[in-house]
Design brief:
This protein is an alpha+beta fold. Helices cover 34% and strands 27% of the residues. It contains nine helices and 17 strands. α1 packs parallel to α2, α2 crosses α3 and α5 packs antiparallel against α6. The N and C termini lie close together (6 Å). Bound molecules: ligand DP6.
Length: 340
């Protein structure tokens, strides 16, 4: 049995836990599922005589969170051979835990023929990693925070239509492993995170949901940037200050602001790492990519866009800030799928 699961990018971030044991969050969050054809975790699973796991061909010791997922779905038997592979760099802040734990959940559930709705599976995926809960659906997804295992799950709010007009640019600033993982950082969080979770995040969530209903891109973009800035302000100003954004990340943020000078056409958002996601509309993607690539130099030359980019070399001749790669991706309309 083989499955694939997509990753997701949060526009209203999950940041802070009410219960670290079962990843009950301090606030509800909202994300777009990222094109399953672009980035995914692929997991194959079969019965075995013991539990064996590999990630990207290297053998790994299952973490306690992986074991929680397995035993929630198959309490009697955890003897599986599970092989996972990410098609993007692990721990690059690209939410690999989201696709990884969503894939694990979906793979085990399918192997043991568990009849469970995606909502039910989102609770189990949450035990593995909070953000994985949202990867159980395509489209626009809300993870309702709840206050117990049964009441904390994800739901799909919207799929297709307006979302098909959106594009995401994923800019890999640095694919090296991050120093302070989000789990660790959230565990050190402060009064600042609690305040955001209590007041600002719920208020933004209501506003952004309304903006999606009204197809109000400008409002969606402004709220997205506000919440990303808030997360990084909190991480930087808590007792154990963590700086996830580097000079290049800040340059990207400033470039988006500059691009938006006359009209808000794009939004940046950064997770617990230096890499950027930029949300825009299909109609503006080419102008935006050309604008960015006149300043950001793609070291590896890895630029993936839907439409061919003309005169890339000329465009890059003035670029000074090094990035590793740039990908244009769509919103995924699907959560995890069986691939054989
Ligand atoms: C900044 O889901 O990786 O990406 O629940 O401890 O596994 P754990 O944390 P994780 O945190 C993701 C944090 C974030 C924001 C988000 O995706 O909502």
């Amino acid at each position: 049995m083989q499955v694939r699961a997509p990753t997701n990018i949060a526009l209203i971030k999950y940041w802070g836990k009410a219960d670290p044991e079962s990843n009950l969050p301090l606030n509800s969050s909202l994300s777009l599922t990222v094109d399953i054809n672009a980035f995914y975790t692929e997991t194959t699973i079969e019965h075995s005589s013991s539990l064996e796991m590999t990630l990207n061909e290297a053998s790994i010791t299952p973490t306690s969170r992986m074991l929680k997922v397995i035993s929630a779905l198959s309490p009697e038997n955890s003897n599986f051979k599970i092989q996972s592979r990410n098609n993007f760099p692990t721990a690059a802040g690209l939410a690999s835990s989201a696709s990884g734990l969503a894939a694990l959940t979906f793979a085990v559930a399918n192997l043991v023929s568990l009849e469970a709705s995606p909502e039910e599976l989102s609770k189990v995926a949450r035990l593995g990693s909070g953000s994985a809960s949202r990867s159980m659906f395509g489209g626009l997804v809300e993870w309702v925070k709840g206050d117990s295992h049964e009441s904390s799950y994800s739901v799909q709010l919207m799929n297709g239509g307006f979302l098909d007009e959106l594009r995401l640019l994923m800019i890999v600033v640095n694919s090296q492993e991050k120093e302070v993982g989000s789990t660790q950082a959230m565990n050190m969080q402060s009064e600042l995170a609690r305040e955001r979770a209590e007041y600002r995040a719920p208020e933004r969530l209501q506003r952004i949901k309304k903006a999606f209903e009204e197809h109000n891109f400008e409002e969606i973009a402004n709220i997205t940037m506000e919440d990303s800035d808030d997360l990084h302000y909190i991480a930087e100003n808590s007792e154990f200050s963590v700086h996830y954004m580097n000079d290049t990340s800040r340059k990207i943020r400033d470039l988006v602001k500059e691009f938006n000078r006359e009209e808000v056409l794009a939004a940046y958002t950064f997770d617990a790492g230096p890499n950027a996601y930029i949300l825009t509309r299909k109609t503006h993607i080419n102008t935006l990519v050309r604008y960015l690539l006149s300043v950001l130099k793609v070291k590896s030359g890895e630029v993936f866009t839907e439409e061919p980019l003309h005169n890339l070399e000329e465009l890059q001749s003035t670029a000074k800030y090094e990035i590793e790669a740039l990908f244009e991706v769509k919103v995924s309309s699907t959560g995890p799928v069986k691939t054989n």
